[in-house]
Amino acid sequence: MKVPVRHKIQSDETLLSWVARLSRTGAPLRENDIINDLLGRRRARLHPYLPSYISKLASAIHISEWELLNNHTLYQFFRFFGLDTLGTLRDSMLSGDATNTVIFAGLPHTKISFFDGHKYCPICVRLGRYEYGFGYFKIHHQIPGVEACSEHGCELVGLMGGNLGYDRHLVLPSCNDRMILATTKQIEFADFANKIWQITQHAEEPVDYHWVYRSVLSSRGFITQEHHLRLAPMLQEMNAYYEGYSFGRTLGLPISLQSFEFIGPLLRNKTHYPCHPTKHLLFAFWLFDGDASLYASKPSVEPLEEPQIKTNLEQTAHVLSLLKEGMSMNQIETVTGKSRSYIRRVAELNHIPHQSHATKYPQGLRQLVVLRAKLGQHRQKIADLLGVGLGYVEQIISSTKGLVPWRKALRVEERVYLATEVLKRTREQHPDWLRKDIKAAYSVEFFCLYHHDRALLELLLPPKTKPVPPGKDWGKEDARLVSSIQALAQVETLSLSQIDHAITGHGLLRKSIDKLPMTRNLLIKLGKFKLKAE
Ligand SMILES: [Zn+2]
What is the pLDDT of residue 279? Predict the structure, then answer.
């Protein structure tokens, strides 16, 4: 298909925008005809930022597939955050259909819903009209959660998509929208998202965000010396940083992200799984204090998280080699800086004879210490009973192979026994208590059994009761729906179902309107809802 020069795709234009403009070229073509010409099918959906059919579009307009994917969709944005390690999202965008791209990007699993449609800045559109004769949808405005144009400092306007919206129609932004000033934070967030989008476009590999986050967190004092996260102060700072930011608006960040509960799983290695890029935006905007370039920094040579075990092992091997060479303990202590007892322990564990204690205590005494230790007696008690020093007892316990884990197992068994007795007694004294009551009152005993003998814990606890979901906060939901409806563009032209879909109302506008008085009044005012005859 030959595309006139003035209808070339703009460098930051979405694909739907370009196809829609093309359909307005010269003698107006029917939408179905243009879709048929370009894609070889009568009907097609074009997703705002993860559209498919890219191979066909690329060959129709003689632009490389990569250029379309890279500059006119948010593919790179998703890939950068590890959501296309297998290349399935890319393949689906090149050839598959619209539903698959969303599935391959893992969006249904994220369980967060963003505005479903196209977003645009009223000023950008007017300027485009003035400069080129047309306004168009820009790809970076489509980043989920972004609700402002950082260039013009105003709020974006949304045109609804999805089954109830226009997605099978080729629409273009309107030039008549009112400009609403955005807040400073909204603008800064949009600017940050835009800069990250530019970084992702030039990134050859997905970012090693674990490294980047750990590195910045460490420099800001949010990682302890034992490499643990200091989550509570982190959340406190994030809450302060986002104070006043309006979550839950139609085009912006969903209310479900306001608790920042996703931070733990995002940062911990054990519970980690790739998550929605906007969660990264939200976290990094705070962590980097708006400096997007930190994502582009390269990992240094120094490992941040390598535990010390490695060096300890190396040190033990060093001490052992010196012992084997016949060096005295004094000399080894000077060379390695390790304590006497450490060196002695290495010698005894490896059956290397040494002189310390040997002259002070007879060999038979050593066997008595081992015997009492095996019975689980306390170190101090053994020392008192046998008339030796505590250090000598500790030295023998730690240098006898298998004795430390044996004593540990004995202690666990004892704790399990005591916890079992406590829980049995509690069941007798409080037959009406639920599992959670026991857990709250005797958490130490509960978790002792939970960690060491879960089957026994199940036997001791009362039967499970069905969880009762917490009641809905209708007042809060009412306020959210009202502000979401007020933020909708061209609300007069939308049907009640379309409004419900746009504001993620889950059908409440029809099913539960009686519980939502403010929403009901607003809808009556807008003429979407008739007053019932009394
Ligand atoms: Zn703008």
Answer: 93
Q: Which pLDDT belongs to residue 41?
A: 76
pLDDT attached to residue 306: 39
Please tell me whether residues 180 and 192 are part of one structural domain.
no
CA 120–ligand 1 middle distance (angstroms): 8
47, 102 Cβ separation under 8 angstroms? yes
How many structural domains does the chain have?
5
- Alpha carbon of 121 to ligand 1 centroid (Å): 5
Distance 334 CA to ligand 1 centre (A): 69
Question: What does the pLDDT read at residue 240?
Answer: 93
- Assess whether 139 and 32 both reside in one domain: yes
**Dihedral pair phi/psi, residue 105, rounded to 5°:** -80, -5
Distance 175 CA to ligand 1 centre (A): 12
State what percent of residues in the chain have pLDDT above 90. Answer: 25
Query: Residues 456, 501: one domain?
Result: no
| Sign of the CA dihedral with 85 first, then 86, 87, and 88 last | negative
Phi, psi torsion values for 78, nearest 5 degrees:
-75, -40
pLDDT tens by residue, 388-416? 888 888 888 888 888 888 999 999 999 99
**70 Cα–ligand 1 center, Å:** 21
Would you state the pLDDT for residue 190?
95
Identify whether 290 is part of a domain.
yes
Taking the centre of ligand 1 as the mean of its atom positions, its distance from the CA of residue 531, in whole angstroms, is 40
Say how many Å lie between the CA of residue 281 and the centre of ligand 1.
20
Domain final position from 272, 296, 320: 296
Residues 258, 124 share a domain = no
CA of 156 to the centre of ligand 1 (A): 8
Query: Ligand 1 centre from 122 Cα, in Å?
Result: 7
Q: Which range is least confidently modeled, 298-302, 313-317, 331-335?
A: 298-302
Long-range contacts of 385-394 (CB under 8 A, 24+ apart): 388/361, 391/341, 392/357, 392/361, 393/369, 394/341
Is 374 within the bounds of a domain? no
pLDDT of residue 98: 59
Rounded distance from Cα 190 to ligand 1 centre (Å): 11
**C-alpha 188 – ligand 1 centre gap (Å):** 14
CA of 517 to the centre of ligand 1 (A): 36
Beta-bridged to residue 119, according to DSSP, are 158
- CA 127–ligand 1 middle distance (angstroms): 9
How far apart CA 364 and CA 342 sit, in angstroms, is 23
Predicted pLDDT at 302? 46
Q: CA 242 to CA 281: how far, in whole Å?
A: 13
Beta-carbon neighbour count of residue 162 at 10 Å?
14
Residues 27 and 130 in one domain: yes
Ligand 1 geometric centre to CA of 9 (Å): 18
502 and 440, same structural domain? no
In a domain, residue 92? The reply is yes
- Structural domain boundaries enclosing 444: 406-460
Per-residue pLDDT at 162 exceeds 70: no
Q: Do 165 and 55 belong together in one domain?
A: yes
The CA 124 to ligand 1 mean position distance, Å, reads 4
Q: What is the pLDDT averaged over residues 300-323?
A: 64
